[in-house]
TrEMBL record:
Domain HTH cro/C1-type span(s) in chain numbering: 18-73
Organism the protein comes from: Sphingobacterium spiritivorum
MF terms (GO), sorted A to Z: DNA binding
Pfam families (alphabetical): HTH_26
Listed PANTHER family: DNA-BINDING PROTEIN (PTHR37301:SF1), DNA-BINDING PROTEIN-RELATED (PTHR37301)
UniProt-recorded name of the protein: Predicted transcriptional regulator
Length: 90
């Protein structure tokens, strides 16, 4: 699980579960790259949370390749979160 704040002053991040889904499906980054039709480096940027946006077409292709829903990959939380998905009790 990877936490991505949608802006630097935000405590409301988007959590990316792409690594978890890939692991469950036993799909490597290079396999997914070939299945989706995007470069390994661009897929790595998405997986590591360094992208600022993702096209719906790309998200759709990832979901089709991994047989999942967008909500399986992306999660929004309004709770303050520490690095690597540890929620802060409020």
């Amino acid at each position: 699980m990877l936490i991505i704040p949608y802006n630097t002053s935000s405590l409301m991040p988007i959590i990316i579960h792409l690594d978890d889904i890939m692991s469950q499906r036993k799909v490597s980054l290079s396999e997914l790259s070939n299945m989706v039709g995007i470069t390994l480096s661009n897929l790595s940027i998405i997986k590591n949370g360094k992208c600022r946006a993702i096209r719906l077409h790309t998200l759709s292709a990832i979901c089709k390749a991994l047989d999942c829903q967008p909500g399986d990959i992306l999660e929004y939380t309004d709770q303050p979160v520490l690095a690597r998905g540890k929620a802060i009790a409020t």
